[in-house]
Amino acid sequence: MKTNRKALLTSAALAAAAGLGAATALAQDGPIRIGVLEDQSGDFAAATMVKVHAIELAAKEINDAGGIAGRPVELVVYDTQSDNRRYQEFMRRVLQQDKVDVVFAGFSSASREAYRPIVNQFDGLAFYNNQYEGGVCDANMIVTGAVPEQQFSTLIPWMMETYGPKVYTLAADYNFGQISAEWVRQIVAENGGEMVGEEFIPLGVSQFSQTIQNIQATDADFVVTLLVGAAQASYYEQAASADVGLPMASSVNVGQGYEHKRFTPPSLKDMYVTTNYIEEIDTPASKAFVEKFRAMFPDEPYINQEAANSYIAMNLYKQMVERAGSTDHDAIRAELGKGDVCFDGPSGNVCLDPKSQHMSHTIFLAKVEADHSIAFPTVWENIAPYWLGDAGCDLTKNDPSAQYTPSSPPPAN
Amino acid sequence: MNDARTFAPEAAPRDRRSGLAVWLRRLEGPQTMGRGSLFWLAAGLALLAAAAYPQFSDDYTVGNAAYFLVWTFMAMGLGVVWGYGGALSFGQTAFFGLAGYAYGVLTINVGAAYGFTWLALILSVALGGAFALLIGYFMFFGRIRGVFIGIVTLSVTLVLETFMAQTAGPQWRIGEARLNGFNGMSGMPPLTLPWPGGDLVLYPGAQLYYALLAMVALCYLGLRMLLNAPFGNVLVAIRENPERAEMLGYDVRVYQMLAFGLGGALAGLSGALYTAWGQYITPSSMGLTSAALPIVWVAVGGRRDITATLLGTLLVLTAFQQLTIYGSQYALVAMGALLLFTVLLAPDGVVYTAMERLGRLGRPGRRAGR
Amino acid sequence: MTEILRVAGLNKAFGGVTVARDIDFALEAGAMHCLIGPNGAGKSSFFRLLLGEHAPDSGTITFRGEDITRLRPFQRIRRGMSVKFQVPGIFKALSVRQNLEVAFQNHLHGADLAATVERVLDFASLGDEAGTPAGVLSHGQQQWLEIGMAVGVEPQLLLLDEPTAGMSPDETRRTGEMLHALNARGITILAVEHDMAFVEQIAKRVTVLHFGAIFAEGSIAEMIAHEGVQRIYLGAADE
Amino acid sequence: MELAATLFSTAYQFGDAFAFLVISCAGLAVIFGMMGVINLAHGEFIMCGAYVTAATARAGLPLPLAILCGALVAGLVGMALERAVIRHLYHRPLDSIIATWGVSLIATQGVLIVLGSTMQGVGTPLGGVAVGDRSYSLYRLVLMGAAVALLAGLYWLFYRTRFGVVARATIERPQMARALGVDTRRVYGLTFGLGAALAGLAGGLYAPTMTMVPTMGATFMVESFVTVVVGGADIFVGAAPAAAILAAIRAGLTAWYGQLFGQIGLLVAVIVVIRILPGGLSAFIKRARR
């Protein structure tokens, strides 16, 4: 079955090769075209508008400094409306019609999985700049967002040490939530803790009275909240008004949807989040980034980790193209394979991992105070996305184009 | 006692024409717009233009056109159920999704060799149709009618969506195929034609376009014949006055159930083709927004006529995509405005009204004697 | 003569309202029979019970020797009943010809169907209107069209609910002639009617319903002379 | 003591689900039950009420007044919509579904464009109260009270006031009402406005407990529709018992099997009820009463 599919892919690639190959050769002297597919309307717009702005900022900086290897950067932007179908339509459009050299695309994991077969079919190159559940082992994808091992291997032990070993997980009932919960479970067990509860919430649920009681019925020391979307975010307000009073740990809040800015204090009090960037980070690089950003987009509500990732991704791409001397994907991946593609940006120094094509991060522990200001109790430098490589994904050797999870890891060979 | 066969012909000449001729005659008829050589000339030219156009276009545009064709089956199916049968289904996506997943599960497990993808397509469509028959039986034999049909069907599709969204875990697998929850199932092969000298893989592009174009044309003509056949007449009679139809001796429930099953099978065809097209299917394709879209296409195009439904769907799909490309944030606002505009100013549908204005094509019910 | 329809001990109540009370009723094949009674006497409900639109609380309905009490409406139609409602039950969006085709295609096909449609068009004086959407016919024409739809498929028993409601005197007279023609061809007719002149024109026997029960039965002359019948009609007129 | 705490907990969960269903469905029930219009923009009226409530509350208005403000604005918007669109569609119920869906699209995306993707909410007032070893949100107890008050208020409005009697008469026999000198258009307009205002009230009441985004109305939709459908056309006879039954189903399933089954159970309940009682609970109850 697997080989069969590969054969199909090859024949398709051959069919597409004529058109694409000619295009890249011709385009050698024109601008470098970058496709941007992000949700500027619909459910996810709150967190993703800023990604487009970050890419625009990076493009402007690159062009002001003379472009990539002397060629200007040109953005081809489409609004995907938080709709998976639009990703399918527009990924095809940017690769086939606009003939872009690289695509920056996707917020939700579903949208990524929707466009990934198309990127594979046309042998394109896509950057996914989102924090996600991890596990994508695909040579056509470069992931700059943080993954669970980076966020949970830091967060959970610290929380257990600080507050106690009893953990209650509250997760969105879909891939991200379930896989993240799996990671939490595993790390809690490794550190001698105890799961006192685990509850999954369907997307779109906004009423949490029963859940709040379930949590209170246990003697949890802290709650891991892996809730996603505007509806589920209503949990914090409801939990606060019911005086749950337990500290919360999360990989997804604050850094992405800036809930601490949107909700009335103190509903997020004592929430701890591991993130690779938020605008409150108090380093000179971060401050400079925020200043540049606000100069170009004065009304930007919040500069989140996805914005930083997108900005970093643009610069990583520039670096790889300049080193490779070409926008050819194999040449770019050859540079990536050397393992020294790094960038010192707003969130500190980050490097791409050749095996998984994911990115290392400086992980900041952000604590939300009672007035919703942010403190950083600790910082972990240079945390690698180790799991895929350890589990057997090695994109320098072969390309399974699959997504793995701890409970369904790559087949051992 | 007298012979009660009052009006029945005593010795009418038997109809000697072959079945095929009867069916071909039904390409024209009271339930469908368009008749006469002029109409068929126009239709033939349109088909010819559609067939020739890949020669003058690029791969992307042709692939995109193929993508639009994928959806027309679901729209035509809803046209039959809603426009002709009078039952507004809000849940065609349930059958769309079910067939889409079925195609995925079947082809991932069996593969694409020996043209199996086509068998998988047929099986998926049959499954979509069977499920629709079941739901139809449940509704129509349960005397559910009016807006409640919309609510039941919407509930069905939302249940499926909610359930599928949480099947992310590895325990949710059918054979080789992981359902993969909200992120969706991928990795199924596209439609593959066995071909001397190597299988022909129908990726979006000219080949898939031609395959779909042929399917759309066949399906369109087939529906025209069916709608002008006694089945179609009865369906319209039921829409107009179900009580009277029952009093003419028709089992209204059976007709409605069959129409619903047909609509479900066509939605399933779209679903399986969509999955094959993008090698991907998600629960969100059964969600509220997705469920509403076919209604929009059919309403804006015109539900009372299968030609208007087909053309309208293609028109709306194109317009919405262009709006999204060039209208950025304002696309959804424009779509909403388009809907309002249609309902208030052209309640029969934009294409339907335009066709009616065009006049020359003739309209149902205007023939004087035969 | 044989009995075509027998109703025995029929009862039906909606909540507190009894619409049929112990109705025993029989109809000879070939009869032309009228049901009369003041508004709310249960005439329409009785029809709906006969047709199976309502299920009776108790009692049986026998049609051509078969117990049809539990059959659904379309099954009764297929056994030879036919009905024309008070409100024209035609398909307004369809042409006159299509209305007839829909009415008959359950039984007839091809040339048989076409020939029958032509005959019925002729019978109902609608030959010139074959292509017209039924919704634009005059009221009387709509009634005739519906009678045509009801009789084209060889019914044994034709139920008519106020066939002349809203008709002009001339239309009423022609309707009466139409019914006599049908009856002469062997169709048993049971009609609900208000217009006593029309009842006199068509009916041999009359049954009077009152408060869901059979109040009196006999020839039209007997009924007109019947004191009780006069009383309930006058009483009804006072309302 | 332990028993009392458990009982309270169960009652609280039931009451919470009941309040949510009643409050979120009232506006839809008035519009659907009395006018036969399926209003897919119901969620957007809720959103409108919530936004106005949050804005006025943060501008310094006391919360109860702010909530009334939200209801009022939603009601006015509803009356305007009725005049511009709905009025033309009374005889075409299926078309009104499509039109209101168009309105909903315009409203959701329009708010996103004009006001941005998110808006700061107002915190939940009143805090918590401890019963046994668990604590509960006082505000949610207030919501339960509001739900009961809402039902009582609607009953009073429709059965004890002139407007209510005229409205019920108009909706049952429009021609007759017109012949008696009732301005039926005005009655329809007011009834629709009332439905919209009730939706706005729902938004205002729940604004302090939820995230404020343009799509927030969508989270109310399924629950409101389910309740209205199960209840049937008569909101007083139907909606309240429907909300009670569904609240029991939802609270029970959620407590025993988790949120997923709570959600799916609700949808399955609808399908089953429609199948067994096509007219909803109200038709069933009315028939049984006779």
Automatic annotation (TrEMBL), chain A:
<feature type="domain" description="Leucine-binding protein">
    <location>
        <begin position="31"/>
        <end position="371"/>
    </location>
</feature>
<dbReference type="InterPro" id="IPR028082">
    <property type="entry name" value="Peripla_BP_I"/>
</dbReference>
<dbReference type="InterPro" id="IPR028081">
    <property type="entry name" value="Leu-bd"/>
</dbReference>
<feature type="signal peptide">
    <location>
        <begin position="1"/>
        <end position="27"/>
    </location>
</feature>
<protein>
    <submittedName>
        <fullName>Amino acid/amide ABC transporter substrate-binding protein, HAAT family</fullName>
    </submittedName>
</protein>
<dbReference type="InterPro" id="IPR019968">
    <property type="entry name" value="Urea_ABC_transptr_substrate-bd"/>
</dbReference>
<keyword id="KW-0732">Signal</keyword>
<dbReference type="InterPro" id="IPR006311">
    <property type="entry name" value="TAT_signal"/>
</dbReference>
<comment type="similarity">
    <text>Belongs to the leucine-binding protein family.</text>
</comment>
<dbReference type="Pfam" id="PF13458">
    <property type="entry name" value="Peripla_BP_6"/>
</dbReference>
Automatic annotation (TrEMBL), chain B:
<keyword id="KW-1003">Cell membrane</keyword>
<protein>
    <submittedName>
        <fullName>Amino acid/amide ABC transporter membrane protein 2, HAAT family</fullName>
    </submittedName>
</protein>
<feature type="transmembrane region" description="Helical">
    <location>
        <begin position="280"/>
        <end position="300"/>
    </location>
</feature>
<keyword id="KW-1133">Transmembrane helix</keyword>
<dbReference type="Pfam" id="PF02653">
    <property type="entry name" value="BPD_transp_2"/>
</dbReference>
<feature type="transmembrane region" description="Helical">
    <location>
        <begin position="118"/>
        <end position="140"/>
    </location>
</feature>
<dbReference type="InterPro" id="IPR001851">
    <property type="entry name" value="ABC_transp_permease"/>
</dbReference>
<dbReference type="GO" id="GO:0015658">
    <property type="term" value="F:branched-chain amino acid transmembrane transporter activity"/>
</dbReference>
<feature type="transmembrane region" description="Helical">
    <location>
        <begin position="332"/>
        <end position="354"/>
    </location>
</feature>
<feature type="transmembrane region" description="Helical">
    <location>
        <begin position="147"/>
        <end position="165"/>
    </location>
</feature>
<feature type="transmembrane region" description="Helical">
    <location>
        <begin position="307"/>
        <end position="326"/>
    </location>
</feature>
<feature type="transmembrane region" description="Helical">
    <location>
        <begin position="254"/>
        <end position="274"/>
    </location>
</feature>
From TrEMBL, chain C:
<dbReference type="InterPro" id="IPR027417">
    <property type="entry name" value="P-loop_NTPase"/>
</dbReference>
<dbReference type="GO" id="GO:0005524">
    <property type="term" value="F:ATP binding"/>
</dbReference>
<keyword id="KW-0813">Transport</keyword>
<keyword id="KW-0547">Nucleotide-binding</keyword>
<feature type="domain" description="ABC transporter">
    <location>
        <begin position="5"/>
        <end position="236"/>
    </location>
</feature>
<dbReference type="InterPro" id="IPR003593">
    <property type="entry name" value="AAA+_ATPase"/>
</dbReference>
<dbReference type="InterPro" id="IPR051120">
    <property type="entry name" value="ABC_AA/LPS_Transport"/>
</dbReference>
<keyword id="KW-0067">ATP-binding</keyword>
<protein>
    <submittedName>
        <fullName>Amino acid/amide ABC transporter ATP-binding protein 1, HAAT family</fullName>
    </submittedName>
</protein>
<dbReference type="InterPro" id="IPR003439">
    <property type="entry name" value="ABC_transporter-like_ATP-bd"/>
</dbReference>
<dbReference type="GO" id="GO:0005886">
    <property type="term" value="C:plasma membrane"/>
</dbReference>
<dbReference type="GO" id="GO:0016887">
    <property type="term" value="F:ATP hydrolysis activity"/>
</dbReference>
TrEMBL record, chain D:
<dbReference type="InterPro" id="IPR052157">
    <property type="entry name" value="BCAA_transport_permease"/>
</dbReference>
<keyword id="KW-1003">Cell membrane</keyword>
<feature type="transmembrane region" description="Helical">
    <location>
        <begin position="17"/>
        <end position="41"/>
    </location>
</feature>
<keyword id="KW-1133">Transmembrane helix</keyword>
<keyword id="KW-0472">Membrane</keyword>
<protein>
    <submittedName>
        <fullName>Amino acid/amide ABC transporter membrane protein 1, HAAT family</fullName>
    </submittedName>
</protein>
<dbReference type="InterPro" id="IPR001851">
    <property type="entry name" value="ABC_transp_permease"/>
</dbReference>
<feature type="transmembrane region" description="Helical">
    <location>
        <begin position="187"/>
        <end position="206"/>
    </location>
</feature>
<dbReference type="GO" id="GO:0006865">
    <property type="term" value="P:amino acid transport"/>
</dbReference>
<comment type="similarity">
    <text>Belongs to the binding-protein-dependent transport system permease family. LivHM subfamily.</text>
</comment>
<feature type="transmembrane region" description="Helical">
    <location>
        <begin position="61"/>
        <end position="81"/>
    </location>
</feature>
<feature type="transmembrane region" description="Helical">
    <location>
        <begin position="137"/>
        <end position="158"/>
    </location>
</feature>
